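Hello Y.,

Per our agreement to keep a running log of every chain we model this quarter, I'm adding this entry. I've kept the format consistent with earlier entries: sequence first, then predicted structure.
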Amino acid sequence: MGLRVLVVTNMYPTAEDPSYGAFVATQVHSLSRAGVDVEVEFVDGRRTVSAYLRAPLGIRRRVRARGFDVVHAHYGLTGFVAAFQPVPLVVTFHGDDLLGTPGARGGVTLKSRLIRRLSHAAARRAVAPICVSEAMRAALPRAADRARAHVIPMGVDVGRFCAGDRTAARTRLRLDRDERLVMFPNTPGERRKRLELAEASMQQLAADGMVARLWVVAGVAHDRMPDYFRAADCVLLTSDWEGSPMVVKEALCCDVPVVSVDAGDVRRWLDVTPGCRLVERDPVAIAAGLRDVLCGSGHVNGSAVRSQVSVDRVAAQVLEVYGEAIGQRLS
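Predicted structure for the entry above:
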């Protein structure tokens, strides 16, 4: 019998919200293609916290009944509720679970502080923690947990997120073929994404004499996103902090240039993709970066990123972690 893994996650696509946690589903599918017998336990806590209260017993029963070799939880809170079962636990930390969620007045919310504490407990319980960026690993408070943690970004389906014709993409999306579009592919109401900073940067760009439109893209099904990236002249990220923003990796895999502040692991990907700009969190600096990119060729070579974040490569790295987890149980 092959390796059996239960993936526990509080983000996973549904018929009503097909983009919710799409990157987790992508990893699940890549592991299945690699020969892993994967099942998913979706702890949907969006409507009520009771889903988390019920989860530990349900997960424990399912593990005992189905004979899983590993439980792999995504997000620290889910890792905590998945810790009360007998098989090795792997936890992938993605962002706010270790970095916190900002409140309306700045600082970190009370709820987020609680989640961070539970995430720290999950890291201690995990046989093998996974962080999606070095910044995430550095956020683990215990040196022993940082030493055990692996840095593995979430993978991108590079067969889908790849270079394509901009004019054709704009035609399919019914966009003006000649308009300069700066894509902001984030939920505009999420405070840490800093939409107001993006807007101020676009105003500065206009004051500098360059006409372009800030194109806010949110709530689009994940399988439709490649055309949105291809239609853009560049992608803009202005977040206060990130874990490992998928939108940056996906844009670069589509050969679309990125202008970004230094958040999460963005520097890692822009360093291997000439033609992008890493800028300070300042409207003038961001506008200058946008102007440089918009006056350029309009495309970059994302092959170095594609080679590092392909779902098959990431699945192979995750399988190595599973092997380590099982080996520790047997030793």
